[in-house]
């Protein structure tokens, strides 16, 4: 089954790309934009149909490679 | 999925003319299959066949003592001594870069890199000549940011230094920006590889990335039709590049070449598998048999048509010695790249392609590749062009504030600092960059030798618009001068000819004039043209064409790279020497455009004999170590040239330019040819002036370096810090 | 006796030859080490070069850390012998946990190539020719060079930018050392500042200091 994993910078770590997008949106006249954070969406196709097993495996992949715990957090999306 | 029925209407949709459709019938004696129609349409596109430009390109000088390989291969090759050759070419990626600036520019860089290492050379240095619309226009800023980032992302991750080029702005490029990418590589003279498919029975190998549906009809169609309302809909046909894979492909190709098992190799660029296989077979007078089912594929369900026309990046076609294919497959496996035997060379001069067990293409090679249709398009000088060359200086208001004029020019988009651009490029990788970007030509050391190459790209489109013959001559002369001020001897040229639609007589006239000028100048300066590229259809319906832009890429040789001369001052207390002569020539100048809002007048007169004398003097003076710095006087004239020497070094000057008629703005800002400003240690000035006399170059000591001000007679006196500030702020403020 | 320096080669390494050449010019005995090798040759020190290993896809240095050779490199570092990471090599050593912290996108999101000035602070084993307070002018060329400390591991700061901070690095940090001082990483490139023809020569004392640490390590063993 396919699972989506969202990897993003931890709150408090400067997200230079998010900040640039935020400025650009404000420049376009969207004064309502209070903040922008970016992340990476990784889709992993796993060799199992058991949702619990798949989620556990996805989390393991994040710990191992997909996210750097010093600066990043991850979330296995539903 | 079954192929559509091939009708004349479908053939016309593929961009084929009635004449060409009839010709296909004659060659085949039947209707083409759908994949065959695809092949004809790309092989006979302007981009691949040069059908409108061929008769003019044939007039260009291509021979010279240094030439190892002239036009017709992936790149030109010249002898640079010590058993080394320089392999170089410039190529356009204009239309894709307008549609998708980041991806378009990146794949442009990827394409030219493959052209170089296909020949067995390791790419050493890149240059990029970029033209955009007005810097004031927000969309142009978006394009500049995207193109520069695309070049940086590809070149930096591939590991080839970007050392020079140009960036200029003119509203006539608004809808048709130009991205011309040049690369120079170095190989051993006895290890050059050509795109040949010789030896019937030899296996044909596909190596590199897998094939997907990207870029079908990309380069060939995008570059062969003008823009219209539907351009946005073409976005998906722009290919994306992967510099990481290309770097692996480089290392794997060079390693595979070293085995001695490769007979010929060709990059899959525009029109992919089709163009590469036809060109290889055509050059060797052979045929090729291919089985498309063996092509590594990234997507499922691809048709023969798609597999033949895909422009997926980072792929090569090569022919191996029969029985030694295993050695090549091993090398590619080591680098984790796909490699597959997809066919073999035959002796019947035919291209035969099987797909799903059926023969879907069976056509003769030569009538399609070597004997493609050639056109003699009508030409006509545009009305009113001659009138534009008239300029009455008596009616031009006197310059009341020369200092203000200099500052305004230094801050103008076409003359200000380009650091915003080149600091995004890795200028250093491979430890060869002796003179970094920002001066005239860049200088790189030829690895493992004492020699160096001076590299530059040049063209003044305003002059080409006013007078394409003179403008193209100037492009050659300025490129040669830019190499000469570093102490190099100009060696050979590559060209990228950017024009509007060849179907309009005015554009074709510009093309005819520009190629005539380029040929005359190259012959006079002894510079063979060894490679190049033509980009037509740089125009948008209703908005007209770009100014004719025949970009010149030039390679010069320094026998001893330690003698390379930088452009900016080196020390306070040096003498400033002016070389050449300023004439009353303000036509087509930056000064006239920026200060008076005029783009008219004849370009400066060109004295190619004087250019040659100046070049020889500069090389001789550099070899004797007389020059602390030397800088070409071109855009913005002598005052801007001197100010640049001061700003970049942080060393001011006090100098008086030789008078040139009653108007002070002429001495300061005229763009007369064959001039340079140099600095030299005071105890050697007499020797430099004597040497200039021997070479027949007018020369005078005009002042001294030092201090915190830029003082240039007549009547310029500005603080160095203020000039530096205005000069360096323009691009960062506009582009972020 | 010359220092035996191994230079790692990952797919996408770009400065590997330059680093090897510069060490060679300074008298080191250089061995290039392929990323698929699981055993190291006889070495006194290891240097991880710049470039875009594995295309820098995912995160700079993230995938190189799982190359077969890295297990041997971890053992080598644990033995107290010197390991140097330059640019992408620094990123790889951080990802591999040999150095604390991480490197993130430059503040202005653009690749930057220019000369910068750094000052020596606490360069661990690289102290031979690098007394604290010494200034060096070296080029940087990177897109992800902003150092972000690990809140749980205060780094030993080896080098700081002076004047211009080219990437928005925290506290102007240009390079760090591990607790033991045998692993050092920095973003600027000493290997491009060795030959006077090409500009600054301030990279030479840095590389020679590494070579001195290599010889000291050999003597210790």
Write up what this structure looks like.
The complex is a heterotrimer of chains A (78), B (736) and C (221). Chain A is α+β, with helices and mostly antiparallel strands and 78 residues long. Chain A is built from 2 helices and 3 strands; from the N terminus they run E-H-E-H-E. Chain A has a single domain, classed as Phosphoribosylformylglycinamidine synthase subunit PurS (Mth169, Chain: A, 2-Layer Sandwich). The two termini of chain A are 12 Å apart. The model of chain A has no long low-confidence stretch (mean pLDDT 90). By secondary structure, chain B is of the alpha+beta class. Chain B contains 25 helices and 28 strands. Chain B has a 7-stranded mixed beta sheet. In chain B, strands 23-25-22-26-24-27-28 form a 7-stranded mixed beta sheet. A 6-stranded mixed beta sheet of chain B has the order 1-2-3-6-4-5. Chain C has a single domain (4-220), classed as Class I glutamine amidotransferase (GATase) domain (Rossmann fold, 3-Layer(aba) Sandwich). Chain C is built from 4 helices and 11 strands, in the order E-H-E-E-H-E-H-E-E-E-E-E-E-E-H. Chain C is globular and about 40 Å long. At the B-C interface, helix 8 and helix 10 of B face helix 1 and strand 6 of C.
Helix content of chain A: 25-40%
How is the largest sheet of chain B built, in terms of strand order? Answer: 8-10-7-11-9-12-13
Which strand-content bin applies to the residues of chain A? 25-35%
| Annotation field: number of helices of chain A | 2
CATH class of the largest domain in chain B: Alpha Beta
**Total domain units of chain A:** 1
CATH architecture of chain A: 2-Layer Sandwich
Q: Structural class of the helix and strand makeup of chain A?
A: alpha+beta
* Strands ordered across the widest β-sheet of chain A: 2-1-3
Main beta-sheet strand count, sense and barrel state of chain A: 3 strands, antiparallel
Helix content of chain B: 25-40%
Can you summarize the main beta sheet of chain B? 7 strands, mixed
Q: What kind of assembly state do the chains in view correspond to?
A: heterotrimer
What characteristic shape of chain B results from the CA principal axes?
globular
